[in-house]
Specification:
The chain is an alpha/beta fold and about 450 residues long. It has 17 helices and 14 strands. The chain is globular.
Length: about 450
């Protein structure tokens, strides 16, 4: 069907069966004639439902006569969208969320389901209390919203957090059960809840300032002159866009003054310690955010070889380098690594593909791809890539292994494996960063890990 509203676009995006709602959403928004405000609403609705999907399903099941009832066509997504607005979006009145959902059932050719949609959503509105504030205390009848706000239900619908803490976390915070169990075992209840709150937050737009062209202060002044508001991030290297401001459409981004990158990722290039004139290898480079930062730290002097398997992603590295005025990056397909000289690079970065559990706020789909079997396979692939990267590091050089995961299998365990396999490696430092700063965008950071090795 043709979609005309923000809610329709959100429903269509959520119906994506290819596993990438975000990409489908971007296509639909790009093809639409919606206003900027409605485009923003479509994104908020689709990604909000994606993050909170299991919580929304748990609430909806609690109001079904047959909890395992299968709903036809897009009715499932319409209900999820309606429930999300009722439960989590205070600015949208309950009656408006219900009425829009009922009308959507008609527009999506399910007129017979209008009464069902209306009755279920109105039942939810009657049993959910107002938003309350204060320290969050887990309970089966409490819907968590933020670390200091929640809503109370008239009856428990989540598992008892004392008797079944992992199931409670999975349902109340919308995490796959494998991840809820794993985090609870590794971090305990309090930290796991903090991680889950962060994963359900809307990540701010944070951009690293290109030091080859400007400074943080000058970049903020230039943006202000263009009517774009930003403030410095606490890391001293980046800026934070005001909520709702699209910096990527501004002249400053097009001129290469800025590059989107989370502060935790920024620390990885600093850990590599690249210097002007060095020969550097970025083993898994796309989309080039770390590659371009390495070039900045080298004052665009020396040589960087950037490898990636995907032609489309290699083009993104080239485009980013050109936009930012960087000339020392040589982009090559990963299979060309066989032609590189062994032991010839002063610095090697191997930023491996991972489970993304440190960046769930930015990558909503990632949580639903997580399971223990895939985690073990990813970790094995990471070991292969890291072991190959060791070969290209010269004696006396430095290798940095990094992920945007917070899982031991992908981080500390892989580092121990590397040290056992390559006796010429010495671990200088490793650092795990848990996601944080959700209450203050200037303190925001994703989760991740890096390990610095010297090659003897």
């Amino acid at each position: 069907m043709n979609v005309y509203t923000a809610r329709d676009i959100a429903v269509e995006a959520l119906r994506d069966r290819g596993g990438n709602v975000t990409a489908h959403l971007d296509r639909l928004i790009g093809q639409s004639v919606l206003s900027p405000a409605d485009r923003s609403l479509a994104r908020e609705l689709a990604l909000g439902v994606l993050r909170r999907r299991e919580t929304l399903r748990t609430v909806i099941r609690a109001f079904l006569r047959q909890p395992n009832h299968t709903m036809p066509g897009p009715v499932n997504e319409i209900l999820l969208l309606g429930a999300y607005q009722i439960l989590f979006l205070e600015r949208i009145p309950d009656f408006a969320a219900v009425n829009e959902a009922v009308e959507q059932a008609d527009r999506f050719h399910h007129r017979r389901q209008q009464g069902f949609v209306n009755g279920l959503l109105r039942s939810i509105t009657r049993e959910i209390g107002p938003v309350e504030t204060g320290p969050f205390v887990p309970a089966g009848d409490v819907l968590p919203m933020t670390p200091d706000s929640w809503r109370r239900l008239k009856r428990p619908i989540f598992a008892d957090p004392q008797r079944m803490p992992q199931r409670y976390i999975a349902d109340a915070f919308s995490l796959p059960i494998d991840l809820a169990e794993k985090w609870h075992a590794q971090f305990g209840m309090k930290t796991t809840i903090n991680l889950a709150f962060h994963a359900n937050s809307r990540a701010p737009m944070i951009l690293r300032v290109n030091t080859l062209k400007t400074t943080v202060t000058k970049a903020i002044e230039s943006l202000a002159a263009s009517g774009l508001e930003a403030q410095p991030h606490a890391n001293g290297l980046s800026i934070v866009a005001r909520d709702g401001v699209n910096m990527l459409a501004g002249d400053e981004f097009k001129a290469g003054l800025l590059q989107p990158q989370d502060p935790t990722a920024t620390q990885v290039s600093l850990a590599l310690d690249p210097r002007p004139g060095m020969n550097v290898l970025d083993f898994c480079a796309a989309p080039g955010t770390k590659t371009t930062h390495i070039a900045e730290l080298m004052a665009d002097k020396g040589s960087i070889t950037a490898l990636d398997v995907s032609e489309d992603k290699r083009l993104r590295i080239t485009e980013n380098a050109r936009r930012m005025g960087i000339g020392i990056i040589n982009v090559m397909p990963s299979e060309a690594a066989g032609g590189l000289e062994i032991g010839s690079f002063d610095r090697v970065l191997v930023d491996v593909p991972c489970s993304n559990t440190g960046v769930l706020a930015r990558r909503p789909e990632a949580r639903w791809r997580f399971d223990l079997r895939s985690l073990n396979q990813v970790a094995a692939d990471q070991r292969t890539l890291a072991s190959m990267a060791v070969m290209f590091t010269r004696p006396g050089g430095r290798l940095v292994y990094s992920t945007c995961s917070i899982e031991q299998e992908e981080n500390q365990q892989n580092v121990r494996w590397l040290l056992q396999k390559h006796r010429n490696l010495e671990l200088i430092k490793d650092e795990l960063t848990l996601p944080g700063g959700a209450s203050d965008a200037t303190q925001w950071h994703d989760g991740g890990y890096y390990a610095i090795f010297a090659l003897r």
